[in-house]
Amino acid sequence: MGRPRQPLLSRERIRDTALELIDAHGLEDLSMRRLASQLGVQAASLYGHYPTKDALLDAIADKIMESVDVTGFASADWRSGLLTWARSYRAALAAHPNTVPIVASGPVHRDLSLRRADAVHGALVGAGWPPRHATMIGASVKYLVVGAAATSFARGFVDDIQVYLDRYPNLVQAHRLREHAEQIDGESFEFALTALVSGLALGYDAVAVGRVQEASPARGSTTSGR
Questions:
Q1: C-alpha to C-alpha distance for 211 and 127, rounded to whole angstroms
Q2: Helix (H, G, I), strand (E, B) or coil at 1
Q3: Taking 90 as the threshold, does the pLDDT of residue 61 lie above it?
Q4: Whole-number Å distance between alpha carbons of 16 and 31
């Protein structure tokens, strides 16, 4: 028999199959042995492409980050950049909710994740934010996105009104939350995101004033030499 035109395994096929397993069964059920069985090979064959399971998880995290959009910062409007980044970030995690713990653990040595972080930080600093503020802004957006992707506020309530009627008079409409969970969670994320960006805009104005004051000559100084 001639050699197959395409190799049986590739890094991309292993990564994508692992992601399918995580989507279907959860992160806890992924093992190299189970992944190998799904691919029809021995587990040892996987290690030629990914030396460890952690290396495979890093590749999956980078795959998720491919759809996270940081091009909004190119407009030189940091507000637009933040909104586009955060929305696409949440959408990427919402498409693969079982991967949230992987992505949330940080960029570590993940090339694409680090390039996304570099683009966000560089754009914020380039827009005039001090580096320390840019770091905190990036962290704050990530906290918001990961929290929204990891949990559902609305689905945390049961749809039985009797649970709330007798003891929780301020929650008598809570039984309706699960029915509208997707809408409520989506609108709540937008509410929090726009509030965050609006608050940052006020802080940015204060930072801008501080820069102007630092650049202005001190009162009573003179450049005339007289």
A1: 13
A2: coil
A3: yes
A4: 14
Max Cα distance, the chain (Å): 95
- pLDDT exceeds cutoff 50 at 224: no
How is residue 139 written in tokens?
């962290």
Question: Nearest CA to 38 among 19, 66, 61?
Answer: 19
d(CA 113, CA 186) in angstroms, rounded, equals 24
Domain regions of the chain by residue span: 11-63, 66-213
Dihedral sign computed on CA atoms, order 68, 73, 74, 80: positive
Q: Which CATH superfamily is domain 66-213 in?
A: Tetracycline Repressor, domain 2 (1.10.357.10)
Q: How far apart are CA 38 and CA 29, in angstroms?
A: 13
Q: What is the mean pLDDT of residues 155-176?
A: 93
List the CATH code of the domain at 11-63.
1.10.10.60
CA separation for the pair 187, 42 (Å, rounded): 46
State how far the Cα of 42 lies from the Cα of 172, in Å rounded to an integer.
Answer: 56
Q: Write the CB contacts of 111 (distance below 8 Å, at least 6 apart in sequence).
A: 62
